[in-house]
Sequence to fold (192 residues):
Amino acid sequence: MKELVFATQNKHKLEEIQQAINGQFRIISLFDLNYFEDIPETGETLMENALQKANFIYQNYKKDCFADDTGLEIEALNGEPGVYSARYAGNGRSFEDNMNKVLEKLHNKTNRKACFKTVIALIYKKQTYYFEGIVNGTITTEKKGKEGFGYDPIFLPNGYTKTFAELSLEEKNKMSHRAIASKKLIHFLNQQ
Ligand code: IMP
Fold:
């Protein structure tokens, strides 16, 4: 069976992908490689970061590999927090702090358009491939809902009346930016 490393520490993401890929590939985690450190992420775009993570594993283990990176891009803030979504309010700050910073910066702004974007970089047979997933929506004026993580309580996907944090995880996982990008990756892999 072909082996493919998913450069993530997130067990939930690993299970999701392993289930969706047909029998041709065995997904190897960083835990299987006994790699427990953070992988450097110093790029200025989601693509750069995803590739940096995939490349890091490829260079060190010489195995085909993919990695993902996600950001929230807000139109009125020129695409912020974008690649800095995890640490928008500063290193080690909480999801609450990050959301508060967004809500403060958008105070009195009428344009509240935003999107979540996931980019997956795959290194397969020495070639690089990218898969993107985008969900468009708006930033609410207050936090709503308890599900999910990150910016979910302030993100209202277009066509819905509930924020990501008010949807069940199952509902969100069917239509999220990550699900869209993952489906494209899986479609590609299932054709190999
Ligand atoms: P990562 O690339 O998946 O590690 O995501 C980077 C950051 O983006 C996270 O720390 C969250 O703040 C934010 N983020 C990523 N995905 C989501 C999501 O599905 N909902 C809300 N926030 C997210």
In short: The domain at 3-190 is CATH 3.90.950.10 (Maf protein). The mean pLDDT is 94.
